[in-house]
Design a protein that fits this description.
CATH architecture of one domain: Roll
CATH class of one domain: Alpha Beta
Number of strands: 20
CATH superfamily of one domain: Dipeptide-binding Protein, Domain 3
Amino acid sequence: MKLTTALFGAVATCAMASTAFADAHVGERGRDGNVSLIYWQAPSIMNPYLSGGTKDIEAASLVLEPLVRYDNEGNMVPWLVDEIPTVSNGGVAEDLQSITWKITPGLLWSDGTPFTSADVRFTWEYCTADGGGCAQGEKFTDVIDVETPDPLTAIVRYGVPKPFPYRPFVSHESPVIQAAQFADCLGPKAPECTEANFNPIGTGPFVVTDFRPNDVVSYAANENYRDPGKPAFATALLKGGGDAAAAGRSVLETGEFDYAWNLQLAPDVLSNMEAAGRGTVVASFGTLVERILINLTDPDPALGDRRATVDHPHPFLSDINVRKALSMAIDRELLVEIGYGTAGRVTCNVLPAPAIYASTANDSCLTQDIAGANALLDSAGWIDTNGNGVRDKDGVEISILYQTSTNAVRQDFQALIKQWWSEIGVETELRNIDASVFFGGDPGSPDTYQKFFADVEMFANNFSGSDPEAYMANWLSTDAPRPESQWQGNNMPRFQSAEYDAMVAEMAQTGDLGRRAELAKAMNDMLMQEYVLIPLVHRGRVSAHNNTLGGVLLNTWDAELWNAADWYRTN
C-alpha cells in the first residue's frame, strides 16, 4: 500500500514548515512582566488525557506539548522533533506500519531532567492502560508498540498500514507527559493522582505555580524552556468562570485582561465592546460546529449504575422518526442570525470543512419544516392521546430534558428550540450547567457532558489539523463513555454501528485522498441521516486580545494558545 501523491504531498510540504516566527522583539525571558487570560469556562484539570473539555486542554497546552503541532494555517510543524517523518525521508516505513520520530537533542522537562523517547512510550502506555479511561483514546487506535532504540528515537508501530500516521503525539490534544511524574498513575489510579493532574511537569513555555480547579491557574516562565529569550512574560494568569460577556468586556472595554477566549456573544454586543478601542476581536473559521447530541440510551436514575449505557435503549429517542422530527423543527438561519451573525453559518453536517470533506447530502435541514415534522410523528404513531399537548405512544410521552452549559447565546438557543419543539408536541425541560463542571472530566460528577444524564445536550466541538480521521473515530461503538472507562470517551450519543466502525477502520488504512474523502462524507452522512447528532451552526472561532499584546495568531486547527511563547507586550 502506498500513499497517494495528493495525500503524501501535503504532508511533505508541512514537513518543511518552520516553527520560527519573525520577531523583532527579542530579549531576555520574562522581560514583559505578566500576561492575563480569561477563559469564562474555568479549567477543572490540567491533564488533557482525563478531560475532553476544550478549556482544560487549552490551559494544559501552555505546559504540555506534542511532538508536532498544527500552525494557524493548518500545516503540521515540528515542535519537539527536528522534522516531520515521511516515506520519502525514511521516517515512515514503506509498509506504512511504523513512523520514526527523532527528538530534538537537548530538550528538558521543566524540572531540568532530559526529555526522552521513554516519555513518549510511557504516554502511549498511560492512555491505553487497562482499567483506565483516556479522553484521547482514539489518537492511539491501532498502535501496538512504541519502541525506544535510543533516548532520542521513538518508533510508533501500528498493527495495520496507516497512510496517515500522524495521530499519536500530534496536536495539543495528544501531548507527551513525563514518565517519572505519572509512573504510579496508570489505569484506575489515573484520576487519583491529583498533584500530577493539577501540576504537570512539561516542556512548554510555562509551568504551573498554583492551580485552583474551576477558578484560576497561575503560571511562571519555564526556566528550562528551549529558547532562552522566551517566553517574553515572566508570569501568566488564566482566570476562569463568569460568562462570555464579562470576559469580552474585561479585554475590549476595561483592559483588565489581555486575552479573552471563545467570545460566544451576539455580533452587535461584540461590535459595541470593540468600539471602546482597547482591544481587537479576532475570528477565523475552522471545523467548529454547535450541535445537539441525541442520547440513544436511557438516562433514568432508576437504572442505577447502568443508566445512560448501551444496556438500556432510550424509551423514545431510539425511534428515528422522533429524532428526525426534532431536527426538522429547527430554524437554523434564525439561530445564526441571533447568535453569531457573520461569525456563523448554517450547517447540516458535523464535518463542515475542509471543503473536500463537506457533504451536500443533508441540505434538507436548511429549511425549517414544522408541518413536515408533525406529519412524520403522526405517521409514526406518536399522538397526543390525553390532550395535554405532549405526544405519546404506548404510555411513553416525548418529554425531553435538554442540557447545555451556562451561556447567553446557548440559553437563547434553548428557548427558541423549546418553542419550536412545543409546536410539534414535544415537552422540553431546559437545564444549564456551569461550563467548568459541564466540560470537566470528574468521573464523580453527574453533570458532565460525557455522562450525559439527560435526553439531549448541546455544545460545540471541532478537531485538530485538517485531517478528520481521528475526529470521525469519535463515534466508534467502543468510544461510548461508560462506568468501565470512568465515563471517558467521545461517543456521547452512545451510537452503536458495525457499519460505521468498519468505515473508521477502512479510513485508517486508506491512502487515496479521494477515497478518504468518500469515507469521511459517508460517516458524516450516516450520523446525520440517523440523527445521532443535530448540527446547528458552523461557528467561527471568536476571541479578543488587548491592543498591547503582540504575536497573537488565532489558530482554529490547534490550541489557541499554541504560540504563547511568541507573545509579547508592544508598549
